[in-house]
DNA sequence: TCCTTCCATCGACATCTGTCGATGACCGAC
DNA sequence: GTCGGTCATCGACAGATGTCGATGGAAGGA
């Protein structure tokens, strides 16, 4: 359990989130996927980001962080609901940060993670079928 | 090369596509992901579908099939542009079909594959951030 | 100063995954 | 019936991946 964990005595300021442009890893911007054949390079980049979320533990981490108070959470908040060891949780968080899907903000002893909505939306835009777009 | 491949002498009828409801494997319906914590079971189901597209070869296969004439393609159309062996292409196609992202229609000697737009849209809906929804 | 707590990294291990060549099943043409 | 072409499956292999315990570094409190 998180015996000595902070449990609520944190400011929980809403972070600015979503870096304006060219932030973090890249997220493999906006090709509709079902529009024209992907190049090998584009496919590799997209696959790297998708592999980051194609894991039960990491999917749950994303939803746990997003649903947490203030939209951010520290590692100690995530270990127990996930049921995995602390090194494993830390490993998964690192993968998500390197994929640009989470941001890490170290404040004092704690490291706070927050989702990057723009990254998830970019992935959604790539997968969505253009038929859902009425402007054509 | 596809020496004896049909190369265009096929009807190329537009298939009905997208099975009405409850088709194929399931696609792990519509939870916004950044809404509330995913259950372990839901996360596992979602991850299984995401793993299916989290691969460069399979991403290219999806886009190749979608961009092909008539929205469908046979294996022999995909081997050369992908640069992989026929068994490998067949393997990837099987993974995509089992994930409900492609349909397989065997006509004579050829097996025609077509994308399931509803499956991709469902995935996009799960990843998209609710902030993109103005109705709240 | 020392101790406690939080977190990241390391090394090891079992398992999953992507790829291939070889083979077999199936269909259509001659 | 036989042959050629398309596709799926099998077995094998190297490499990537998820998990853990042990360890180390850094910040803050007694």
List keywords for this structure.
3 strands; homodimer; Arc Repressor Mutant, subunit A; three-stranded antiparallel beta sheet; 136 residues; DNA-binding
Indicate the structural class of chain A.
alpha+beta
Radius of gyration based on Cα positions of chain A: 17 Å
Q: Looking at CATH, which topology of the domain at 40-127 in chain A would you report? A: Arc Repressor Mutant, subunit A
Poorly predicted tracts of residues of chain A? 7-25
Q: List the helices and strands of chain A in order.
A: HHEHHEEH
Q: Mind telling me the CATH class of the domain at 40-127 in chain A?
A: Mainly Alpha
Can you say what the CATH homologous superfamily of the domain at 40-127 in chain A is? Winged helix-like DNA-binding domain superfamily/Winged helix DNA-binding domain
């Amino acid at each position: 359990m998180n015996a000595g964990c902070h449990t609520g005595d944190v400011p929980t300021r809403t972070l600015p989130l979503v870096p304006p442009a060219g932030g973090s890893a890249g997220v493999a911007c906006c090709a509709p996927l079902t529009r024209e054949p992907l190049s090998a390079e584009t496919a590799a980049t997209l696959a790297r980001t998708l592999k980051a979320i194609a894991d039960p533990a990491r999917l749950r981490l994303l939803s746990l962080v997003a649903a947490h108070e203030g939209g951010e959470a520290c590692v100690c908040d995530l270990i127990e609901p996930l049921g995995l060891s602390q090194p494993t949780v830390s490993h998964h968080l690192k993968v998500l940060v390197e994929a640009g899907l989470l941001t890490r903000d170290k404040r004092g002893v704690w490291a706070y993670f927050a989702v990057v909505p723009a990254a998830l939306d970019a992935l959604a835009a790539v997968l969505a079928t253009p038929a859902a777009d009425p402007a054509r």
